[in-house]
Amino acid sequence: MLASLLEPHSAADAIDGAWTGAISLDGSDWPVRFDISSDEAAISATMDLPTLGMIAESIDIRRANGDAVVIDIPFGLGEYELAPDGETLTTRSLAGNSITLNLHRPADAARDYTTAEITFECTDGLTLHGTLYRPRAPGPHAAIVLLHGAEPKGRDHWGYRSWAHHYASNGLAALVYDKRSSETSADLAVLSRDAQSAHAWLRAQDGIRAEAVGFAGGSQAPWLGASVAADPDAQVAFMIMSGWPACTPREQDLQALRHGMLDDGIAPEDVEAAVAYTNLMFYVARTGRLWSEFEPIVAEAAASEPWGQYVNQPQSLDDLSWWNRNMDFGGEKDLALVSCPVLALYGDADWVVPPSENADRLVRTLTRAGNEDVQVAVFPEADHRGEVGFSKVDGKVRWPQLAPGLFDTIDTWLAEHGFTSGR
């Protein structure tokens, strides 16, 4: 066995290429795809979980005996040995668990799009890098810029990058790009100008329908997109946003605090104490006053209050500088100027941007300002990301997935608005 592990492998190992099938437990299948690539020096692999919206995520892989390999499947599923057997793979859990893999060669492994690395220049002269996904079907194509959420992650995170796969597979060109990382450069006004630069760059590309370039994203992204779309000169064609706050970041933070605590079963009087504390924090952030009085309150909240773990605990006035600059960004003042078609997606289990506080308010604000092309969809059991989690009820497994109907809702809306031809 040692000799087989040490012998050189060719650049065309039998294990190389795409393998599709399912991860299975108790008769419930989770569609999966692995793409394996090797040469004499190295081997690598990526994994797709299409129903979860995870595409081309790198996973750990190492060589085993002969042409076999061992992969480490995310989400705690553990290591599996895979060995090619003609057009199928024999698989074995190294942990001996009851979750099985069933994999075979697909008839057609080609993606429906190509990718190209690009750069564009922002308004302050910074160059950002991105990836442009183009459908293989003849153009010109409508296009979409994928905007970032609040997390400091760029193209390396599948939760952001993988949406480009979906849109490009459905006939839209899609642009993902890196996010600035420092605190001051993460101001919403700066990020919205980056979004505007990305949008302008994409509109200018050959093969792109300049009049049909929109935005998509979630969480923080709606603030950025609405800020750009509020300017008619930007010519934003449409917006598809999930977890869309119809308010400012300050209001949204208070909503998330209240709903998150109540969802955790915290006593209402403790919830209101936490809200009062946070309102005081915003006053200190806005004015720069009363820090010396607020500092011991922060310490007491951290040390002894039952709600302390739910609130921000700034250690200096500088820790509140982001809130000082961003707490009143966007909200209804931008929404009142958005005239392009809008699709807003919410999960009814989302406590971060609860639809009960935002969905109707979004519609009222947009329609009151004259935008009559507004559609809202709320998906049962879905969280802030639009995901429905793992469950097992009466022996039936439900694997984690994006909310049933989410993809169909987006695809139908795009086709009805003439941005794609539909599937």
Can you tell me about this structure?
This protein is of the alpha+beta class and 423 residues long. The protein has three domains: 2-104, Lipocalin (Beta Barrel); 113-248 and 329-416, 3-Layer(aba) Sandwich (Rossmann fold); 250-326, no CATH class. It has eleven helices and 20 strands. Helix 3 crosses helix 4 (221-229) and helix 5 packs antiparallel against helix 6. The longest helix has 20 residues, at 268-287. The protein starts with a helix and ends in a 7-residue tail after the last helix.
Supply database-style keywords.
423 residues, eight-stranded mixed sheet, alpha+beta, disordered N terminus, Rossmann fold, 11 helices, eight-stranded antiparallel beta barrel, 3 domains, Lipocalin, single chain
What share of residues is helical? 25-40%
Which geometry do the CA atoms define? globular
Q: Give the radius of gyration.
A: 24 Å
Largest sheet: 8 strands, antiparallel, barrel
**What would you say the CATH architecture of the largest domain is?**
3-Layer(aba) Sandwich
Q: Quote the beta fraction.
A: 25-35%
The largest beta-sheet arranges its strands as: 1-2-3-4-5-6-7-8
Number of E strands: 20
Which topology of the largest domain does CATH recognise?
A: Rossmann fold
In round numbers, the mean pLDDT is 93
Structural class based on helices, strands and sheet pairing? alpha+beta
How many helical elements? Answer: 11
Give start-end ranges of low-pLDDT stretches.
Answer: 1-12
Please identify the top-level CATH class of the largest domain.
Alpha Beta
| End-to-end separation | 49 Å
